[in-house]
Amino acid sequence: MSKFNLIENLFINKFDVKSAMTAHYARNSNKEKEDMTVSIDKIYPCQNMLDGNKVIECFLLNKDGKELELAEGVKVEDKVYLYNGHHRVAAQILSGKTDVEIKVISLTKDEWQKLYNKVNRLNK
């Protein structure tokens, strides 16, 4: 699979608006964030579009050795819902990485389900 197909699969085919809204809500939790190495196949995006220019800019900064902030997400079981840093993660995929460092908030399945239900009741 080409790197562009990996990015398309990650950012278009795996996007779910209800989970994205829940992850954005969860980011305001008072739980500690921790750095974690995450396989790209375990990442679920909270946006379904990328600006190609931003991806290339991040790719070139990475190539030049610039340290970029870690992407951020919510970890539930083996999935990480990415809510910040989509372009940075896409750039890392372009550079050939299959695992990326992400700053995560970990939630149990029950905590996630309660938030998911609450957020989606608010949006009916």
Helix percent reads 40-55%
Total of domains: 1
Number of contiguous helices: 5
| Computed structural class | alpha/beta
CATH homologous superfamily annotation: Conserved hypothetical protein from pyrococcus furiosus pfu- 392566-001, ParB domain
Q: Please trace the helix and strand order, writing H or E for each element.
A: HHEEHEEHEH
| CATH architecture title | Alpha-Beta Complex
Cα radius of gyration in angstroms: 14 Å
Uncertain stretches:
none
Number of strand segments: 5
Q: What is the CATH T-level topology?
A: Conserved hypothetical protein from pyrococcus furiosus pfu- 392566-001, ParB domain
Question: Quick one: biggest sheet?
Answer: 5 strands, mixed
Strand arrangement, major sheet? 1-5-3-4-2
Sheet-strand content, in percent, reads 25-35%
CATH level 1 class label: Alpha Beta
**N-C termini distance:** 38 Å
Rounded mean pLDDT is 89
Shape: globular
SSE topology sketch:
Elements: H1 3-13, H2 17-26, E1 33-39, E2 43-45, H3 52-63, E3 71-76, E4 79-84, H4 86-94, E5 99-107, H5 109-122
Compact summary:
The chain is α/β, with parallel strands linked by helices and 124 residues long. The chain contains 5 helices and 5 strands.
Defining key terms:
5-stranded mixed β-sheet; 5 helices; globular; alpha/beta; 124 residues; Conserved hypothetical protein from pyrococcus furiosus pfu- 392566-001, ParB domain; 25% strand; single chain
Explain what the structure shows.
It is a single chain. The chain has helices spanning 3-13, 17-26, 52-63, 86-94, 109-122; strands at residues 33-39, 43-45, 71-76, 79-84, 99-107. The chain has one domain: Alpha-Beta Complex (Conserved hypothetical protein from pyrococcus furiosus pfu- 392566-001, ParB domain), CATH 3.90.1530.10. The mean pLDDT is 89. The chain has five helices and five strands.
